[in-house]
Amino acid sequence: MTTSHICIMIAIIVYLGAMLYVGYLCSKKNNDTSDFYLGGRKLGPLVTAMSAEASDMSSWLLMGLPGLAYLSGIADAGWTAIGLAIGTYLNWKIVAKRIRLYTHIAGNSITLPSFFSNRFRDNRHILQSIGAVFIVIFFIPYTASGFAACGKLFSSLFGVKYLTAMIISALVIVAYTTLGGFLAASTTDFIQSIIMSIALIIVFGFGVSVAGGPSAVIDHAKSLPGYLTMMTTYDPVTGTEAAYPVINIVSMLAWGLGYFGMPHILLRFMAIEDEKKLSLSRKVATTWVVISLAVAVLIGVIGLGMTEAGKLEMLQGSNSETIIVKIADLLSTYGVLPALLGGTILAGILASTMSTADSQLLAASSAVSSDLFGAVLKKKRQETMLTDRVTLLLIAVIAVIIARNPDSSVFNIVSFAWAGFGAVFGPVVLFALFWKRTNWQGALAGMISGGVMVFVWKYLVRPNVAFLDFYELLPAFLISCAMIILVSLTTKAPSKEITDEFEFVQKKMAE
Question: What is the pLDDT of residues 346-356, one digit of tens each?
């Protein structure tokens, strides 16, 4: 093992050790299920803001987005980034405070599915159970993709077997999450967002320098037809440009709709200590997201400039997503200090993956232990905590089994899972918060129709109808909204108790 690899390993080991220590500290603050899954609603505004965004972005920010820009120009990556930035802002602006108030008033709900049942007085817990099933369907493979990303990173860097690397990564994530629950996941996500930011800054500065300066990067990008415009794309195979269809723009922007239904992000809104501080959280989160997304897209452009300068080999296809890894590896050859900085970059990639995997793991386990079997498992407080931790471990084991094959297509589930959560929960969240006439039948219809349409559009419509080949989130989201309105209006209106509670929340919002 080279000196640079030793320095990289030291940086990563220090980082992993710090995450475990945070989990240990947070474990002392968990007294019941509410603490384990919602941190006792005690998060500060900065932790709320940064943990929400770190749990959202995952390795896609440091690998997927730069790779997309590197390969075909800024159109695809740029429109996606714009959609995500708009979705982030709107979610904080119109949903955050309202859902924090409403979940507390409606039975002190600690999960999204339990909020639906409490909000609509669904005493049979149908909404809670169906919501939990959808969370398990979409989150377990999503968690597996995070484990796999960590495994591939370690395997490619140090030459260890993929399965060994993946299991070690999973054990660290499971350890601190099992120990500290939601508070540990949120605190580590806050730390991980800082590491991700540092990684982006280092890569950006080093990349521009090695590529020959800003003018060299821009001149090379301009020389590629269609590479630097938002209305065309660059084909690296033929070296030609192609028009970027309007339907693709709509499809990429539709990614922003997913935010309204992301359980692991909405939980951060529900967990803040003081809803009045959400305004500060919104400003911090939106600023960080806009800057990070912009820098990530630019890193793809810079990486191509480094390739033109002969500093990096040309990356083809999915290998383009390793552009930041290649830059970190190049940086580590410049000496001990640069090697430690390279290790920081790789720790940033690891952090981005772990920050999502821990939140997904926690959300999936809460869906099982609290939403599916909560009534059965109501025992003494300590016994319930044990059940929560055992459930989390079982979910992790299933995710590890799914991720055991390094050549599996588990990564394809990421965009599919985003569409699933956005369509299943997004419309129900919005109508539950903003439309008094919504009833439990409408919510159920919206949830099921949204989930079903994601599958139908993905596997039946897109492959067979050329002009409808766009992201499944948009049609599924719209169908869900239509079903909520239609079924709510054709079934019994909500009771006075429900509408009075809705109006009470409206008054609290106005205060």
Answer: 777 776 676 66
Q: Quote the tokens at residue 323.
A: 């552009």
| Number of neighbours of residue 397 by Cβ within 10 angstroms | 12
Cα separation, 365 vs 136, in Å, equals 8
Are residues 144 and 400 in contact, defined by beta-carbon separation less than 8 angstroms?
yes
Say what the pTM is.
Answer: 0.83
- Which residue's structure tokens are 């407080």? 381
Closest CA to 282 of 70, 77, 95, 133: 95
Amino acid in position 414: V
Burial of 198 (0-12, 13-18, 19+ CB in 10 A): middle
> Which of these, 339, 334, 73, 57, lies nearest to 197 by C-alpha position?
57
Three-state secondary structure of 402-444: HCCCCCCCHHHHHHHHHHHHHHHHHHHHHHHHHCCCCCHHHHH
pLDDT tens digits, 469-502? 888 999 999 999 999 999 999 999 999 999 999 9
**Strand, coil or helix: 377:** coil
Token couple for 147: 């484990």
Q: Is 240 helix (H, G, I), strand (E, B) or coil?
A: strand
Please tell me the distance from the alpha carbon of residue 441 to that of residue 100, in angstroms, as a whole number.
Answer: 24
